[in-house]
# Entry
Amino acid sequence: MRALTVYVDGIGIWAPGIPDWAALQRTLSDGSIAAPDAGAKPAPAILPPTERRRAPEPVLLASEAASQAATMAGRDPATLPCVFSSTHGDLATTDQMCATLAADPRELSPTRFHNSVHNAPAGYWTVAANCHKTATAISAGLASVAAGLVEAATEVAADGDAVLLAAYDIVARGPLAEVAPSGVPFAVAFVLSPSRSAASLAQLSLYPLQGTAVAKGLPAALAAFAANPTAVQALPLLIALAARAPARVTLASGANTSLAIEVAP
Amino acid sequence: MPTRIAPLAITAFTATSALGHGRRAHADALRHDRGGLADNDFTRVPLPCAIGRVAGLESMALPDAFAEYDCRNNRLAWHGLGADGFLDAARAAIERYGADRVALVVGTSTSSIGATEEGYRTLDGGRLPERLRRPALHTPHSLGLFLEAALGTRGPCLTVATACSSSAKIFAKAERMMRLGTADAAIVAGVDTLCDSVLFGFNALELVSSARCRPFDTARNGISIGEAAGFALIERDGDRHAPRLVGYGESSDAYHMSTPHPEGRGARLALADALARAGLEPDDVDYINLHGTATPKNDEVEAAVLADVFTARVRASATKGFTGHTLGAAGILEAAITLLAIEQGFVPATLNSRDAEPICAAQLAIEREERTIRVALSNSFGFGGSNCTLAFAAATSH
# Structure
């Protein structure tokens, strides 16, 4: 079949010790990483000050990465349809909500409930960015990054507009951590566009494959991120983009399928 | 404005809700004004409200091969797949096109969270009890994982979870994949089940009515929550009886997490895009299945949009008085109701409602009407300001 071809015009990333794309490139070139502060959270400037403090963690992570990507691409976020993808969603809110429901369901807070929807990052982002374009929140389990890339590239190719993709996973809490493991926060975002421009860093061609893909190991400096499902999926692509050389990355995309991504600077 | 799309055939569809199992049960209930809402007997802690519950899920089980996915939501998915021969139609399409050429796009709001809630109620030494210690039950993608295993598709597979617009947006995702050649056919599914999160969550937001919901009634006072499963098989060509997906529009309110935009900005954008993709004008539309949750604010905003864009020629109704608001399944359940209305030539009543919101009284069908419907829309608007309008047409009109 015909590949889906898109151009990467912007990249955003936020993780402990890796506050942006420049920081990841430094880590990849010299093997150093800033000492991570386990409790650190991003404070995305696009959010109003109260939300910067109070918004759920997925909103903070996704908004920070998304803002960086839009800025690098030179795009007004209001103009970008967006796709938000996560393996596990808001593990902290789910843990707190289920604990409250088990203790006394009448104590559930209305804000916690509306924050529990999987499209909370999409909702907060579109409000902050004044974006009336389509916003989609998806999950495909451990293939959520590949599914996000396919969905975003599909929208780019079908409608001819640049699309913002943000993928994230936060740290698992409570009893959920055993069945939905995630040990470190990580968010990544891309602005994908239909044609090459001065802003384009690379061309991505996406090909669906049959058979499963085995995730590659991570460089020593990034080994801690093996504990985050979004990082495990996204870092091989980010490493290929940072190398600025032709590469082929294969990601799991379903129970029996994978996605080949050809990266061309 | 988006450009016009080629219509796609809906070659099979089905729905299971409080109205029953399959199309015939839905058509019978809708044509006899027989609703499915009843007093809440679901929550352990009493909550006085009406719910739209699917009978018998507690005693159903999944086939042994899929035991790891067993939970209320996946049981409802399996139960729903068995109606109207949908499972056979889906498997035949997979055989015909090849498993790698069939996309599986599912929509749900809470997925299997009922199993997570149950695990937290029955913790065993701080851990989830052993029978619930399964990753496939505690992920937003549980429904997608289960259906991918049960159907055996090997094309693109993803779960869309945008609250109440989830299983409307799946039609848009499927159309794009088919237009680009990523898939030759798509199975779209929407399933959401009753759980404490939504019942007590919407109650905390003071959006749940203590009685059966009354969409667009001047005395409406909130939603009734229901559960449902809906499925559709989308192909490029179908026989002359197959209705068509002719358009869709998706937008964001950019206003608030749980309150609609006061002027319905996002709803208007979704509607305009759906009409543009379908190549239709408002006066071409015969019927609109409204989102109509029966909260004071949602219906006020949607009524104003309806009255502004459409003349009294259109007939519009909200069917959540029959089924309850089935949240992530509402998009496809109401798409199925809309397709039944096209197929059988009737406008469902706005059940439980008597006194129509004056602003849209000319367009709103409080009582059931018999009439030919060639073009129909279905609205789904949800939390996070996520909006989707779908446009369908009878086979012969396009």
